[in-house]
Amino acid sequence: RDADRLARFEREARTVAAAYSIIVSAAANGIGVSAAAPAPEKPVSRKARADSKKLSDGAVEKMLSGDSSAAERMLCAARELNPANAEALLSLCSLAFSKGEFTKALDICGAVAGAAALDRHPARQTMVAEALYMKAHVFLKLGKPREAEKYFRLALGTAPKGWSNLARAETELARLKAR
After folding, report:
1. Side-chain-side CA neighbours of residue 170 (13 Å)
2. What is the mean pLDDT of residues 159-178?
3. CB neighbours of 48 closer than 8 A, spacing ≥ 6?
4. How far does Cα 59 stand from its chain's mean position?
5. Contact present, 151 and 132 (Cβ < 8 Å)
6. Interatomic CA distance for residues 177 and 179, integer angstroms
7. What are the distances in angstroms from CA 70 to CA 48, 56, 83, 166?
8. Which phi and psi (to 5°) does residue 155 adopt?
9. Does residue 59 sit in helix, strand or coil?
10. Is 57 in contact with 63 (CB distance < 8 Å)?
């Protein structure tokens, strides 16, 4: 149906526009945000998306139980099925951060916005805010408070209402400003 195609096109256009506005906002604040989520060579089937989601969810359970090796394997498998699995990327970013692999965490978190747009993830705004929040913490660990402050600001500017890390991000930003 033409009406269905038009509605789908409009949703996809809004998704791309949202990701673009996040990237433009970041650039305006002097922050480089990678839009580079590996675009799949061919369209990802619904089954592959669903299987990728199951692997990603299972990996989070493994992370929570302390089995980071299994979690990482599952997340990589999830990304093989769907390279634009933003949830898997965000979990890989978190995993890299927890292992002290800060450069890797920055790279992975930087791709979340593009992946969320490519994957048309319904919670993309929250995921982008989480990735920016994580990047701010990476910069804190690297001893770069000015960069951290920029990313906390960007996370707060991107976050939807009711974002779970809102108060923590505001507290961290206030602490950095007080320095």
Report:
1. 6
2. 94
3. 81, 82
4. 16
5. yes
6. 5
7. 20, 11, 19, 31
8. -60, -45
9. helix
10. no
Q: What 3-state class would DSSP assign to 100?
A: coil
SS3 content of the chain, % helix, strand, coil (to 5): 75, 0, 25
How close are the terminal C-alpha atoms of the chain, in Å?
59
Structural tokens at position 129: 């805010």
* Residue 158 to residue 134: CA distance in whole angstroms: 13
pLDDT digits (tens, 9 = 90+) for 105-119: 999 988 887 787 676
pLDDT in tens, 79-103: 999 988 889 999 999 999 999 999 9
Amino acid at the residue 23: I
Rounded Cα distance between 25 and 14, Å, is: 16
| Predicted structure pTM score | 0.73
Residue 42's contacts (CB-CB under 8 Å, 6 or more residues apart) are none
For residues 83 and 76, what is the distance between their CA atoms, to the nearest angstrom?
9
Identify the three-state secondary structure at position 34: coil
In the structure encoding, which two tokens stand for residue 131, read together?
Answer: 């990735």
3-state class (DSSP) for residue 69: helix
